[in-house]
Amino acid sequence: MNEEAQVLEFFGIPFNVGNCLSGLVSAVVVFLLIFFFSRKLTLKPTGKQNMIEWMIDFTNGIVKSAMPDEQGKQYGLLAFTLFLFIFVSNQIGLAIQLPINGVTYLKSPTASPATTFTLAFLVLVLAHGMGISKFGFKGYVKNSYFSPMPVLLPMNLLEQFTNFLTLALRLYGNIFSGEVLLTTIYDQLAKSNGLWTFIPAIPLEIIWQAFSVFIGSIQAYVFVTLTMVYISQKVEKE
Looking at residues 201-208, what average pLDDT do you find? Predict the structure, then answer.
């Protein structure tokens, strides 16, 4: 799936318009969803309030699985926000795509490595920062790189790099490949021989759309779970 990119420079820094617009749309969708679900909260939750409370409980459960309750309380909002943003970002390209003159201005932000590498980088910077904040720099270095024994320093250093790569590439690869296959079904099958190929392409497209929704949900869960695991490794004693 080759496509051109519209790039604008701001103070000499290049920005991909499609990535920025797609990420902004995902953020706005998340805000509107939470705004809608959180209106008129009551002591006896019903309907949409049940939904948002279920989502909060779900992401809190991810945090609790990685670190103790007292330690994990401060990360509940992070897990909740990160899960919703990635979930919406994974799904938005399945419902809406805006190609203009070969440039796709609206798609799944997570189908771009720039987005997933940025998210992974922010997560790992946060994890290391929280480790330094809790133990101090010397304690952080000892806990992260010289535990359980100093001889493992090279492996621990390599682990930081592989954590970054796998966190970003797992999300990108799954979402990008899903969109590639959907595009291939439409371009190479549905439009190839009129009704003879268009009709059988419809159920294939629907099936893969449903599968992509499932994969997008799983990848949001995996990303947040690994985020909490990486943070717990920095803020908990080895």
Answer: 80
